[in-house]
Amino acid sequence: MEEIKAPATRLPLSLLRHCRELYDEVAEAASFSDETNRIMHDLLRKTCANGKSAYDSKGLPRMVLALETADAFAHFIDADTNILHAILLSDFNGEVISIEEIEKAFGNDVAEMLKAIETVAQYSAKRNLQNQDNFRGLMLSLADDIRVIIIMIVRDLVLMRRINMHPDTEWVSNMAFEANVLYAQLAHRLGLYKIKGELEDLSLKYTNREIYKQIATKLNETKRSRDEYVEKFIAPVKKKLEDAGLTFSIKGRTKSISSIWAKMRKQKVDLDRIYDLFAIRVIIDTPPEKEKSDCWLAYSILTDMYTPNPARMRDWISIPKSNGYESLHATVMGPDSKWVEVQFRTKRMDLVAEKGLAAHWRYKGVKSDSTDQWMNNIRDILEAGKDDPMQLMKDIRMDIYTKEVYAFTPKGDLFKLPAGATVLDFAFYIHTNVGAHCTGAIVNGRHRKISHVIESGDTVEILTSATQSPKPDWMNIVVSSKSRNKIRQKLHEQLQARAELGKEELMRRAKNRKIEIDESTMMKLIKKEGYKYVNEFFADIADGKIDAGKFINTYQIATAPEDQAERTTAGEFELIRDDQESAGDVLTIGEKSIKGLSYKFAKCCNPIYGDKVFGFISSDGMVKIHKSDCPNAANIRGRYPYRLIRVEWSGKGGSELPVQLQIVGQDDIGIIANITSIISKEVKASLRNIKVDSNDGLFQGYLTLGVSDNSVLSSIIKKIKTVKGVKDVTRI
């Protein structure tokens, strides 16, 4: 770019040189054509010559702001040629070049973006920020192109960088407020969290300089100690990952000043008490087909070295966020008893997140609105065009705020609801209790059911009844997430109330029979009944679906003392169970024979030496060993193929592992003695437990054996089948 010469009393030469450097960076990043460079250079020269247009109303250099915005966009988002054209031309539109000239030189796409930018900028100038959500909706509804919203976010970032120490302190305060409540939140929703963090930091700096300076100074003073701690933490991790054959890089990031301040206020502690000031990110370089398995392998290695906090484990690899974000987060207890967050992702996943196509607003707790509908499309964008997501974003139209209906109460209060909203939705928007007792409505003077769909302009009077309560099928009637959450909450409250009644009835029956219920034993029996949640079991007692007396009988049988010496038939014979298991290092785990990983044998299939097995990396980092034909194998392989790891037996079998047998036969005296005699003669096997039920002359027994390998087990099964009266023997 040629030297831009400054007319007298115009932009200082230092700023002009800065403009030249910025333009060269942008032009190189976007590979501008020679013709584009000629036109843009001419526009910049005309702008410099026009003293009135060189600065905006606040004395800021317009040309510099435009160039810095283009440079920031290319850096944070993408070097998209048309978008950069629109940014550079936005401050010249109508003064040094007309929209017709722009369309002729740069095309219709750039011209349409400029029109949208101008419309949004006009409304933005009104500073109507009293209702943040409505203003954000207005901003989005005015923009026909999502690119315009991103341009406005980046432009605001550049503005915030420039207004430090501006003499108009009231205006600076207003800009800081707008940046925080509007553009930072939009950036968060669109996944531009680097921009979001900087906007929030600058906003804090301009509104509370003392706090900002204190935290910044403290972070600077402790940087060396933090760097030393990070190095101390990652050194052994790097070695383990390298030994596993993984190619990776590790980097750390410190939380933004604004987020640290928010945490200090929330937890009511000083900075010294905030331990998770940084997070460590492991970026794995691996082909697409191994992305998930390698991330889980790295996770397993880390959690085997450091104690994990299961409550802080986040798996966004199995099911990515709706915005496409993929990562595996672990929080572990590092050296000096400090919690450290470690994130595992691949280079592709990291690029997606760093470029902003994966927002963190869901888990950060930002209040949701209908921008969610747009965010649900992001994953489709990534899958359709991973190489050029910005090109696909051009085709996305921001029509989410047009898909709404407006309805009135009889008193004239206006409610905005999503398109397709029903009378029941409207009731919950008024109040939770109104929705919970809704029986219908009078819509425009006519009685309507709760499923009636509301149209814009309707006047809706909700009808309620004290005897009405939410039903599970109401979830199919409402369309808004707000209504669904309220219904779910009410249903849970109802279930809880019924569960308390059911538990009270069960305990009263037990007390009348002078039976003291052990909580842990009762919970095990409830799970055996097929209940995943205890409250559902107690609720069924309250509803009469389960007889409390029969359950108490079952409890008595399960907890009755056993007298092994007096048993003489199969129906009466039972041994005390021995749950102690020993397992040496008899496995080779992974393709590279990674030893030292913690593992245990799955109780659902009880694999023994010689069985065909596979490993499954659980959420706590433990490798669980399953038989290849385990009843749960199909489900595991179907849902979590990337968490599977190859496992082989190494060395020779020796340690006894548990295995269960089911035996069916005639209930003859002596048959159990014959079976136990066969097992007692086996050197590499032992009987750990036997449980037998007898009915109408037949018995069904369950034996738990300790065996060294499957060849020993096969021999035992063959011998038991030869016992007179035994009809069938199967391994379970």
Question: How would you describe what is shown here?
Answer:
- With 732 residues, the chain is an alpha+beta fold.
- It contains 28 helices and 21 strands.
- Strands 1, 2, 3, 4, 5 and 6 form a six-stranded mixed beta sheet that branches. A four-stranded mixed beta sheet has the order 13-15-14-16.
- Helix 4 (62-76) runs antiparallel to helix 5 (81-90), helix 5 packs across helix 7 and helix 22 (481-512) packs across helix 24 (534-542).
- The protein is extended and about 110 Å long.
- Residues 1-9, 127-134, 358-402 and 562-584 have low confidence and may be disordered.
SSE layout and pairings?
Elements: H1 13-30, H2 34-49, H3 51-54, H4 62-76, H5 81-90, H6 99-106, H7 108-124, H8 132-142, H9 146-162, H10 169-189, H11 193-207, H12 209-243, E1 248-254, H13 257-267, E2 278-284, H14 291-305, E3 307-308, E4 314-315, E5 328-333, E6 339-346, H15 347-354, H16 361-364, H17 371-375, H18 378-384, H19 389-393, E7 404-408, E8 414-418, H20 423-430, H21 432-436, E9 438-443, E10 446-448, E11 460-464, H22 481-512, H23 519-528, H24 534-542, H25 548-559, E12 587-589, E13 599-601, E14 613-617, E15 623-627, H26 633-639, E16 644-645, E17 647-649, E18 657-666, H27 671-680, E19 685-695, E20 698-707, H28 710-721, E21 726-731
Parallel strand pairs: 2-6, 13-15
Antiparallel strand pairs: 1-2, 3-5, 4-5, 5-6, 7-8, 9-10, 9-11, 12-17, 14-15, 14-16, 18-20, 18-21, 19-20
Helix pairs in contact: 1-4, 4-5, 4-9, 5-7, 6-7, 7-9, 9-10, 9-11, 10-11, 11-12, 12-13, 22-24
